[in-house]
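Lecture notes, unit on binding sites. The following record was shown on slide 14. It pairs a sequence with D-ribose.
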Amino acid sequence: MAGENVEVIAVGSDHAGYRLKGMLAGELSEMGYRVLDMGTGSEESCDYPDFAVKVAEAVREGEADRGVLVCGTGAGMAMVANKVPGVRAAACNERYSAEFTRLHNDVNVLTMGARMIESEEALGILKVFLDTPFEGDREEGARHLGRLEKVSNVERKYSK
Ligand code: RB5
């Protein structure tokens, strides 16, 4: 939400995103964030759902303010993270998506594809994700709050 204090960021990846995740974690630490690295810990082949769920649960439980997940495309990580109630994840492999999924969708987990973007671009996308406020807290963006309530209604319908 706008004005929210983002201090703790959970990061995770599979083997395809391992290197990029490490680079981004280092940059986040340099920027002053507290980073929770939920793995994976090497380039050995592993399964992206195992790491997506850890990061998504950390965000849901409030252990982390935001999450960042990296796999080959960003797609698998987003699919899994969005199954955890309260998580709004989006795969953003360019900056426009990162900006507008913050402004309109109040995305709290960013996913990216290490096989699709250069590491410098990934860092740029991450900065947009962190620096862009949700517009729904402002009068002109109130419609976005109503839309997110509808998203939550769908989640509740299938959580029974
Ligand atoms: C791993 O080869 C790849 O499938 C995975 O990183 C990811 O892109 C899935 O969405």
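Take-home: The domain at 8-158 is CATH 3.40.1400.10 (Ribose 5-phosphate Isomerase B; Chain: A,).
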